[in-house]
Amino acid sequence: MKTLHVELGERSYPIYIGRGLLGHPDLIQAHLPGGQVLVVTNEVVAPLYLDRMLASLAGKDTGSVVLPDGEAHKTLDSAMAVFDALLARRFGRNAAIVALGGGVIGDLAGFAAACYQRGVPFIQVPTTLLSQVDSSVGGKTAVNHPRGKNMIGAFYQPRCVLADTDTLDTLPDRELSAGLAEVIKYGFIRDPEFLAWLEANVERLLQRDPEALAYAIERSCINKAEIVAEDETETGVRATLNLGHTFGHAIETGMGYGVCLHGEAVAIGMCQAADLSRRLGWIGDDEVARVIRLLERARLPVVPPRELDADAFLEHMAVDKKNVDGGLRLVLLKSLGEATLPVAVDAGLLRATLECYGR
Ligand code: NAD
Ligand code: GLY
């Protein structure tokens, strides 16, 4: 097992990464302040891992909420189902919420934990590659609004992150690739050495080589933990984690939540961000080709859906948390391995990118 730390003063916490961690009750139980625990999960993950999760909480007064699967259910209604379960069991301020699932469950359960009785202890047990390398770390919690992704949320840090890499054995290939988009993102925004490693090892990751996956998860979490420690609430460098996300969120909202997976939308968005960076003269054709090639090799889409024209993109991109006073700002690439902070861009260049379908 590897243990990393997110250094946030009194809110610091460990990230445990390794095989079979769900079989070690001591790990999670050390972070539970009280006797009551509600596990929040969904109908896909529950049959696979809920029994194992509850076994590791033996001795506690436990309950569980099994939500419908998918991004379309990352809503206030689902959060209400969590509040209903907590209240039905008379769970109090010491009760902990455990998120067992991917980023949808993690974001939603974290949001519910931030709100219930003004905040109860929260633990992340991520079961997708995407959630193990990104969403479970850093305390961003949210639900979607029909008009915009993650528009209702809070910064709320977990007490620990327990990433049992054995859970990835049951993850569908398409979801593995979606997770790779966020792994590759770290290479593009700040870690050129990792980018070179990914270019040499992407096939091993697709084949689920345990050693390669363990390295990619650990290196991703190191990158994420460093950024979060520097800028917990995204007043600066944390925004670089949003490379491709303004385009990507427009795809997710515009196509309807769940049609394009989050990681797939981010992959397309990173190609669009690279194209716009080239138009600004910051990177060249070769770098754009490298971005597209690696994402294609990770079996990710690199071209936006035909259904979304430039006007549709611009309408959805107008709803973004990085915008200031109604002005659009984007994270782009200064070079391959270095992202910019959010910048305002020339409207004509942006339209040119949106009209060329990412190429
Ligand atoms: P997800 O949570 O929808 O999980 C993907 C699919 O895999 C789902 O069908 C899920 O039920 C299933 N699944 C989960 N674990 C499984 C397992 N071990 N075996 C088989 N199936 C399994 O999607 P995701 O890609 O994990 O997360 C995407 C979400 O994360 C988005 O809502 C995105 O906005 C959010 N996100 C948040 C942050 C953050 O910092 N908070 C960062 C990145 C993404
Ligand atoms: N995934 C974006 C962030 O955590 O800031």
Report mean pLDDT, rounded to a whole number: 96
Q: What kind of assembly state do the chains in view correspond to?
A: single chain
CATH H level, superfamily name of the largest domain: Dehydroquinate synthase-like - alpha domain
User: How many helical stretches?
Assistant: 13
Alpha-carbon distance between the termini? 42 Å
Beta-strand residue percentage: 15-25%
Rg (CA only): 20 Å
Percent helix range: 40-55%
From the 3D structure, determine the CATH topology of the largest domain: Dehydroquinate synthase-like, alpha domain
Please provide the ordered H/E string of secondary-structure elements. EEHEHEHEHEHEEEHHHHHHHEEH
User: Any idea of the CATH class of the largest domain?
Assistant: Mainly Alpha
- Order of strands across the biggest sheet? 1-2-9-6-5-3-4
Characterize the structure shown.
- The protein is an alpha/beta fold and 359 residues long.
- The protein has two domains: 2-170, Rossmann fold, CATH 3.40.50.1970; 173-356, Dehydroquinate synthase-like, alpha domain, CATH 1.20.1090.
- It is 45% helix and 17% strand.
- Helix 5 packs parallel to helix 8.
- Bound molecules: nicotinamide-adenine-dinucleotide and glycine.
- GO terms for molecular function: 3-dehydroquinate synthase activity; metal ion binding; nucleotide binding.
- Zn(2+) binds at residues 182, 245, 262.
- NAD(+) binds at residues 69-74, 103-107, 127-128, 140, 149, 167-170.
- It holds the Pfam family DHQS_C.
